């Protein structure tokens, strides 16, 4: 499938898939969306009441590495340890990585951003002393982790183009992968997504969405 680099409304780049008319991040602002959905409503929210050491994060859709990069930046600021796992079936190319402007827009190290992408797949790498990254090349349907993560960034392509990624079966895998009290955040607010999350056991909240979206969803795993 063809992929092209576009600039979103906040000045940050993302990858556009013309055949699907779909982007890796919101066209209203890639960085704005990442900060709002995954950092504010996920990362900071979880750390407000929990102090795991290390914090274990699973990202569904490693993609451009933007969510990982911002998490790395924020991890450095607040001095916590993070073990980060990113799942991606179709990694982007070195040419695409070079065209992304996240280090410029975030005023952060280009070398560190590149290190996220050049680190080996299928083995854990120490990006910094406090941030370890494991990239797994697999389909989301192949995930079988149990009670492993505190936080999930669910950033799959939208249900309009890939409805099979937003099913009860997939959210059951997410629920199983989380530890008790764990949290899943996603940019989606579709009723079918909320119902699928609730069906597998999540307590689901509707929250204000990122710019350009009215709402988003956050699910918490509580004992049944």
Give me the secondary-structure topology:
Elements: E1 4-7, E2 13-17, E3 22-23, H1 30-49, E4 55-60, H2 66-78, E5 82-87, H3 94-99, H4 102-105, H5 110-118, E6 125-126, E7 131-136, E8 149-154, H6 168-177, E9 178-186, H7 191-200, E10 202-208, E11 215-221
Parallel strand pairs: 4-5, 4-8, 5-7, 8-9
Antiparallel strand pairs: 1-2, 2-3, 6-7, 9-11, 10-11
Short note summarizing the structure:
The chain contains seven helices and eleven strands.
Describe the structure.
By secondary structure, the protein is of the alpha/beta class. It has one domain: Rossmann fold. The chain contains 7 helices and 11 strands. The chain has helices at 30-49, 66-78, 94-99, 102-105, 110-118, 168-177, 191-200; strands at 4-7, 13-17, 22-23, 55-60, 82-87, 125-126, 131-136, 149-154, 178-186, 202-208, 215-221. The strands form 2 sheets. It has an 8-stranded mixed beta sheet, sandwiched between helices. A hairpin with a 4-residue loop joins strand 6 (125-126) and strand 7. Helix 1 packs across helix 2 (66-78) and helix 6 crosses helix 7. It is globular, with a radius of gyration of 16 Å. The model has no long low-confidence stretch (mean pLDDT 96).
């Amino acid at each position: 499938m063809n992929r092209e680099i576009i600039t979103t409304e906040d000045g940050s780049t993302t990858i556009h898939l013309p055949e699907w008319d779909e982007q890796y991040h919101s066209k209203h602002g890639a960085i704005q969306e990442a900060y709002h959905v995954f950092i504010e409503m996920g990362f900071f929210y979880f750390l407000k009441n929990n102090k795991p050491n290390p914090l274990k994060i699973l990202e569904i859709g490693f993609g451009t590495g933007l969510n990982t990069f911002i998490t790395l930046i924020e991890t450095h600021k607040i001095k916590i340890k993070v073990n980060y796992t990113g799942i991606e079936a179709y990694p982007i190319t070195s040419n695409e990585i070079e065209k992304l402007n996240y280090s410029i827009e975030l005023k952060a190290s280009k070398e560190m951003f590149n290190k996220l992408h050049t680190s080996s797949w299928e083995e854990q790498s120490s990006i910094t002393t406090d941030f370890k990254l494991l990239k797994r090349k697999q389909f989301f349907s192949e995930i079988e982790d149990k009670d492993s993560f505190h936080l999930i960034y669910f950033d799959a392509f939208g249900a309009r183009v890939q409805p099979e990624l937003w099913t009860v079966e997939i959210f059951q895998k997410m629920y199983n992968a989380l530890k008790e009290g764990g949290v899943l955040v996603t940019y989606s607010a579709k009723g079918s997504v909320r119902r699928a999350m609730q069906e597998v056991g999540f307590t689901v909240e509707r929250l204000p969405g990122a710019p350009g979206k009215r709402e988003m969803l956050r699910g918490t795993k509580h004992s049944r």
